[in-house]
Amino acid sequence: MTEAAFIDIDWAGRPVRIEYQWIARDRAAAPLIVFLHEGLGSVAMWKDFPQRLCIATGCRGLVYSRPGYGRSTPRAAEEAWGLDFMHRQAQEVLPALLEALGIDATRDKPWLLGHSDGASIALLYAASYPQRIAGAIVLAPHILVEDLSVSSIEKVRAAYLETDLRQRLARHHDDPDSAFWGWNDIWLKPAFRHWSIEAEISAIRCPLLAVQGLDDEYGTLAQIHGIARRAAQTELFELADCGHSPHRDQPERLITAITAFIQQQPHGDKP
Q1: Is residue 105 part of a domain?
Q2: Entry's InterPro entries (predicted)?
């Protein structure tokens, strides 16, 4: 894995610095997996999972921190995310990043692997750009807001205010307040209770693997079952003894399942 690097993109008329990291970039003929982190994630918080998966699949990897996270440009203190913040990441930030890095997604169609909010962003990208994606793997995705999700996010808010959570997040984010409050505030807005991407999912045409831990404190099986009802090609993978982060709780089983899924697709075993 290479060291993290930075590139500027134009987003909403202003330059934004994006932290990113390549895995096996010299493997030019191999499929590309783009990793999209969770609501409090970053390049660093994936740890070694992207590298392990790329070794197992023979793929290249691109890991990045969204604006407001990791070492990317922090969210301004007065900047509040809108109800469409995941749509904007899928339809504005990710395409701009791919273009800035010289990735022509119409020819070099990436696989997207997203976790939590990142999984929802992957679904939205797949629905918006069906000709620019090879397939998607979504871990603990959100397609609607459940009471369980809100309850758990309220508990995390209390932990951020009352425990050392802020200090722990500061190891991975230049501005932990930017990362935390951008995510937490929008999820706890009353209007966000009505957020849903169920209608968009019906437009997804690419291969899709949806993964849910059976002990997930942020979502239930209703999330991935809802995806399968709207995108018939979806393969479901339900993991016992697994919470909200399958790549941390059950990495070996997850890597085996993803490797098999990618390699069963046309050209998925391309070296």
Answers
A1: yes
A2: AB_hydrolase_1, AB_hydrolase_fold, AB_hydrolase_sf
